[in-house]
Write a structure and sequence with these properties.
Chain lengths: ~425, ~325
């Protein structure tokens, strides 16, 4: 029988208590718990949160193991306080068969640092035309429930409709990368607005996202199915979501930490580190996203962690790869923007970064909170840290970290996966 | 003067005056039988052109040669990304040969700025995508100044300059609007709404220039007219329906010439689409300064090379 005692942690930002973990599950939460035979972790001054769940991670394996592997991505997740991640399907080969999904799942289990749940593609090869083997992926050992062509939008309304209908059989969800490809041309590389006009960069306007979100919530209403909007980035999408939820349409949405903090102004120096899809938007959009996360219009935070080899970012801006790292910094960014600003509590952060994403993805044993009987997936965060991000410190294989040089007031000190420490004292075990 | 010339916004008023004063001296050299000056003897200038160019590349090449620099052209089509090499590797490889200045043309906006952060050589932006073309703006302003001087029309400051055409895709517009407003000219840019750059409303307010969809309304008060090249492939992008319709709305046609005072100079950065954005009557009018622009281009580029490579007090 293994016993772990975490002492003095503020439970989701509330009163301090001890948490006793026996054989990987939470056995008791209270005061002056029995220390005998227990490994003790002093969490005085730290906030205990349920292990974070990321709905949107790119682990790059198979295909681009020079940028990230399932192991290194899992490690980056653990360092960021995560105990489960959903690995996007846009690998090479694409996760569009049961075999591909099981392989990702098995590599995740072998790494053993976080639970890795593969996302299946909606269409074969992400081509947007024929449905992938969605049912076989759902029935596989990987038990795939989330399907997405992320990186590309399921642009064809007929295909999107069929996908939404099809996943109803097993309670699946389509996570849509909302981007009208006619409004976002192939050369588009940033938000279209005053800055892109000045810089001479081809951009795409926020409305390219809004129109797909609007179409998809209507399709969700028509099919009675569930749609999830990945990485919402515009005030327009927020308006549509607010309306859709008021109508009782079954829609959920996520926002990334970078869209909550960073604005399009950062592109003035043409640094491809800040090239991301959806693009960084103006401050008005960022404010709308913060408000929507606070009032529940946006349900969850997801990282869209997108590692890239250095040479794929050392091109001219329009030629460089889209995407930025996010797993290791997510909690500190969200804490700064939403908690330290007083807009949300730590309990709210636990909801949007753990409980709700676990529910959206249908994950058992994750996001259950610090309650007796739940698997001991939890993370300890120092809420009064003073840390400056250095991209060289990352455990990711990549260095496209948009927060390099920025300071934050929170940092992850420890992470436990079913009672086993994956991170202690802020470093990998 | 800064080490690199990436944008007209890198230049102070003093810098521009210095560049123009030297350009005027260089301009005189052009008319000598022996045109070579020893100023940059032993220096190496690479014209690194990732995008097709005839006039800008040869203008920089002549400018370098007349200053006795070793001037070498390297041209390559397409982005380095398509060849599997990063842009950084491409330019570091070239600069490792020992280069004093890189004159760079690239189809991507911002490429010259990025390269300037990677190499030791002075980088001269000879056109980056749809962003800037600072030497073009300098030669345009220089041409205008000389024209107004020669005709006793007073200084460029306070003059009303109309810039007409495909603003969205024009680096010439972006550099010109920056430099001309810096020099105190009043600028109005004219284009159909689909060819106005995104965010032009707040940008024009902030930068102090005017916008119009109506060329006929702007021309009567113009002191100079700059016509921009309109690429025919923009039609397929849906920016305007036909060339004929574009010409009727925004071309400098024979009829529109009557809206201009006779001494109003007509500029075009070339290559001209005669019959589309500019009629032959306008291109060949007595007030057309299109060829003066080309001639001034060499002098201005000699001045740029001279000040970035031989000038004193460079911020290295």
């Amino acid at each position: 029988m293994s016993r772990l005692l975490i002492t003095g942690a503020s439970i989701e930002g509330g009163a301090a208590a001890d948490v006793l973990v026996v054989d990987g599950a939470i056995a008791e939460v209270g005061h002056d718990l029995d220390r005998s035979g227990a490994e003790v972790v002093d969490a005085d001054g730290l906030v205990a949160l349920p292990g974070l769940v990321d709905l949107h991670t790119h682990l790059r394996e198979p295909g681009r193991e020079d940028a990230e592997t399932i192991l290194t991505g899992s490690q980056a997740a653990a360092v960021g306080g995560y105990t489960a991640v959903l690995a996007m399907a846009n690998t090479n080969p694409v996760t569009d068969t049961a075999e591909a999904a099981e392989r990702v799942h098995a590599l995740g289990q072998a790494a053993g640092v976080v639970d890795v749940h593969p996302v299946g593609s909606v269409t074969k090869g992400l081509a947007g035309e024929e449905l992938s083997e969605i049912g076989l992926m759902a029935r596989s050992k990987a038990r795939v429930r989330v399907f997405s062509d992320d990186g590309r939008c399921v642009g064809n309304a007929r295909v999107m409709r069929r996908a939404l209908e099809y996943v109803k059989a097993f309670g699946g969800v389509i996570s849509q990368h909302s981007q009208d490809t006619d409004l976002a041309g192939s050369a588009s590389c940033c938000h279209e607005g005053e800055l892109s006009g000045r810089l001479g960069l081809p951009g795409w306007p926020g409305v390219a996202e809004d129109v797909i979100v609007a179409r998809d919530v209507m399709l969700a209403r028509h099919t009675g199915s569930r749609v999830h909007v990945a990485h919402v980035s515009t005030a327009g999408s927020v308006e549509v979501l607010r309306w859709a939820k008021s109508q009782g349409i079954d829609v959920t949405a996520e926002v990334t930490p970078h869209h909550l903090l960073l604005t399009t102004d950062l592109l003035a120096g043409y640094d491809p580190t800040f090239k991301v899809n959806p693009p960084l938007r103006p401050a008005e959009d960022v404010e709308a996203l913060r408000a929507a996360l606070a009032d529940g219009t946006i349900d969850a935070v997801a990282t869209d962690h997108a590692p890239h080899a250095r040479h794929d970012k050392e091109h001219a801006f329009v030629d460089a790869a889209f995407g930025m790292l996010g797993l290791e910094t997510a909690v500190q960014v969200v804490a700064q923007v939403m908690v330290e600003s007083g807009r949300m509590t730590w309990a709210d952060l636990a909801r949007v970064m753990s409980t709700t994403p676990a529910r959206i993805a249908g994950l058992e044993g994750q996001g259950q909170g610090l309650v007796v009987g739940a698997p001991a997936n939890l993370t300890l965060v120092d809420p009064s840290a003073d840390v400056t991000v250095d991209r060289a410190d990352s455990v990711s294989l990549s260095r496209n970290n948009p927060y390099h040089g920025r300071s934050f007031g929170a940092s992850v000190r420890a992470t436990f996966l079913r009672g086993r420490a994956t991170v202690l004292d802020g470093t990998l075990v | 003067m800064k080490k690199h010339l990436l944008s007209v916004h890198d230049l102070s008023m003093d810098d521009v005056e210095t560049l123009f004063a030297t350009a005027a001296e260089m301009h005189d050299v052009q008319h000598r039988q022996v045109k070579k000056l020893p100023a940059l003897r032993g220096r190496t200038v690479i014209n690194l052109f990732f995008e097709d160019s005839t006039r800008t590349r040869s203008s920089f090449e002549i400018a370098g040669k007349w200053l006795s620099a070793d001037t070498i052209n390297i041209t390559g089509k397409g982005s380095s990304a398509s060849k599997g090499e990063s842009l950084r590797d491409t330019v570091l490889t070239i600069c490792a040969m020992g280069v004093d200045a890189l004159v760079m043309r690239h189809s991507a906006s911002g490429a010259a700025l990025q390269v300037s952060q990677w190499v030791d050589a002075a980088v001269i932006n000879a056109g980056d995508g749809t962003h800037e073309h600072p030497s073009q703006a300098l030669l345009d302003a220089y041409t205008l100044q000389r024209y107004f001087e020669a005709k006793n029309l007073g200084p460029l400051e306070g003059k009303h300059v109309a810039i007409v055409g495909d603003l969205t895709h024009s680096r010439v517009f972006r550099s010109n609007v920056g430099l001309l407003t810096k020099l105190g000219a009043r600028v109005t840019v004219v284009a159909p709404p689909t060819l106005m750059p995104s965010g032009v409303g707040p940008w024009s307010q902030d930068a102090g220039y005017a916008t119009s969809y109506d060329l006929d309304e702007v021309l009567p008060t113009a002191d100079a007219v700059m016509m921009l090249r309109v690429q025919k492939e923009r039609m397929s992008g849906g920016f305007f329906p036909t060339g004929r319709e574009y010409t009727v709305g925004y071309g400098l046609t024979r009829q529109r010439l009557s809206l201009l005072r006779q001494d109003v100079p007509i500029l075009h950065p070339g290559p001209m689409n005669r019959g589309l954005e500019i009629a032959a009557d306008a291109a060949d009018a007595a007030s057309s300064v299109v060829l003066d622009q080309v001639s001034a281009g060499v002098a201005v580029r000699m001045s740029i090379l001279y000040h970035l490579l031989a000038g004193e007090g460079n911020e290295k």
